[in-house]
């Protein structure tokens, strides 16, 4: 039986970042999620240490309010709080002060690096987070030029305890050709750990889409790997369990 997908990277929380601009758009996006076969969403607005952004308390409160609305409208999606945290040297302190929002109150943190971040900067950031007891989930790794270009570097990140997240849209042709090539390479080599939507809008190239991507993964890589990418590893994050790689 096909399990409902779990989306761990999603910007449907309204009015907190460059994602959903209103409650109506948020509800529309989460209806899309249900229609795509997603049963659980971790809402991950952008957080940037040292810059103005929604803090953990605000995110958690807004997620509770949005869940109430979904329940009232009988939209069958379970919501959890999280954030996409842009790495900086004060990120660990930001997490320890409970300003940053880990994924579903776990030790996993959706960690963003700028596309042109140097490899040594990424290595040092991962080391710092792991040493502090957090498990980085590298957001849209296919965008990280100095990681995706070298499969040995991807291996090193995974061996250090990181998870590699890929955007569904970049597997099915909605993104740039370079990103599509990188995403497909990582999945075909089975170096990706999680596929998520990174949805920002109710329409266009950044809407909630995963069903076509799921079908592609099953066809190219088999059902077992597809279930790990789309459900099993994300389910472990929700339980704050270790994911064997």
Summarize the structure.
With about 240 residues, the protein is an alpha/beta fold. The protein has helices at about 25-35, 55-70, 90-95, 120-130, 145-150, 150-160, 175-190, 210-220, 225-240; strands spanning about 5-10, 40-45, 45, 80, 85, 110, 135-140, 165, 195.
Structure description:
This protein is α/β, with parallel strands linked by helices and 245 residues long. Helix content is 41%, strand content 16%. It has nine helices and nine strands. The chain has helices spanning 23-35, 56-72, 91-96, 119-131, 145-148, 151-159, 177-188, 211-221, 223-238, and strands spanning 5-10, 38-43, 46-47, 78-81, 84-86, 108-112, 135-138, 163-167, 194-196. A six-stranded parallel β-sheet has the order 3-5-6-7-8-9. Strand 6, helix 4 and strand 7 form a beta-alpha-beta unit. The longest helix is centred in the first third of the chain and has 17 residues, at 56-72. The chain is globular and about 50 Å long.
List keywords for this structure.
single chain; about 240 residues; alpha/beta; 6-stranded parallel sheet; 3-stranded parallel sheet
Q: What profile does the largest beta sheet have?
A: 6 strands, parallel
> How many E-type strands?
9
Query: Per DSSP, what share of the residues sits in E-state strands of 2 or more residues?
Result: 15-25%
Structural class: alpha/beta
Secondary-structure element series: EHEEHEEHEHEHHEHEHH
* Strand line-up across the major sheet: 3-5-6-7-8-9
- Basic shape: globular
Report how far apart the termini are: 24 Å
**Average pLDDT rating:** 95
Radius of gyration: 16 Å
Total of DSSP H or I helical runs spanning 4+ residues: 9
Uncertain regions: pLDDT < 50 for 5+ in a row? none
The helix fraction, in percent, is 40-55%
């Amino acid at each position: 039986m096909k399990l409902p997908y779990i989306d761990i990277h999603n910007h449907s929380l309204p009015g907190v970042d460059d994602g959903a601009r209103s409650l109506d758009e948020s509800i529309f996006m989460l209806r899309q999620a249900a229609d795509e076969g997603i049963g659980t969403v971790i809402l991950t607005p952008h957080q940037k240490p040292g810059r103005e952004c929604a803090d953990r308390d605000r995110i958690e409160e807004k997620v509770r309010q949005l869940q109430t609305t979904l329940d009232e409208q009988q939209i069958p999606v379970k919501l959890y709080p999280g954030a996409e945290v842009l790495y900086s040297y004060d990120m660990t302190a930001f997490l320890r002060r409970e300003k940053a929002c880990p994924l579903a109150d776990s030790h996993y943190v959706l960690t963003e690096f700028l596309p042109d971040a140097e490899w040594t900067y990424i290595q040092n950031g991962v080391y710092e987070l792991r040493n502090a007891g957090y498990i980085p989930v590298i957001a849209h790794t296919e965008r990280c030029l100095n990681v995706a270009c070298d499969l040995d570097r991807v291996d090193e990140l995974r061996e250090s305890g990181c998870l590699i997240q890929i955007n569904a849209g970049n597997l099915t042709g909605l993104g740039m050709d370079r990103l599509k090539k990188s995403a497909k390479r990582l999945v075909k080599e089975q170096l990706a750990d999680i596929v998520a939507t990174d949805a920002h809008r109710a329409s266009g190239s950044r809407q909630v889409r995963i069903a076509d991507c799921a079908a592609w993964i099953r066809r190219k890589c088999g059902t077992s790997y597809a279930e790990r990418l789309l459900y099993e590893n994300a389910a472990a994050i929700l339980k704050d369990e270790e994911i064997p790689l």
